[in-house]
Amino acid sequence: MSDERLRAKLVDAGHDKTDIELTEREEFLDLFANLLVQTQARVSVSEPPGPAMDDNLPPGGRISGDPELEREMFEFDKRKWENEQRYREFEMRKWEAERQESNRKWEAEERRRDVEREERRVEQRKRDRK
Question: Distance between CA atoms of 32 and 28, rounded to whole angstroms?
Fold first, then answer.
């Protein structure tokens, strides 16, 4: 589920919109997991299934009636998202290292050209003095 949808569901459940907007994804995923567990507990005790939480889910908004299974699915999605974040961070560090290496090569080439130009100027001055 997207961050935006998760935030909207937490706000609908009574959380302060400003607090949720300032909350990191990991924390509001935990809040949402707790909300799912609490909602399932209330539904299983006395209430008939409510409206679906997602258009693709069956009535009651649950894939299964097992809160533990739901929690495991949530934890799996959370780990998947964390792994994707780590991969993105790795790719950014890799890109930054490549960019820095490219800059070092370019600067070294510029220094080499500057030295060659200066050597040509010195040679030209020597020829002009003769």
Answer: 6
Closest CA to 79 of 25, 40, 13: 25
- Residue range 46-60: average pLDDT? 50
Count other Cβ atoms within 10 Å, centred on residue 62. Answer: 21
User: Taking the model in full, what pTM does it have?
Assistant: 0.40
What is the structure's pLDDT at 57? 55
DSSP 54: S
Q: How far apart are the C-alpha atoms of 130 and 127, rounded to whole Å?
A: 5
Does residue 12 surpass a pLDDT of 80? yes
Number of domains the chain contains: 1
Phi and psi at 49, nearest 5°, equal: -55, 140
CA distances from 56 to 1, 33, 51, 62 (A): 12, 18, 12, 10
Structural domain span for residue 123: 3-129
Q: 56 falls in which pLDDT band (50, 70, 90)? A: low
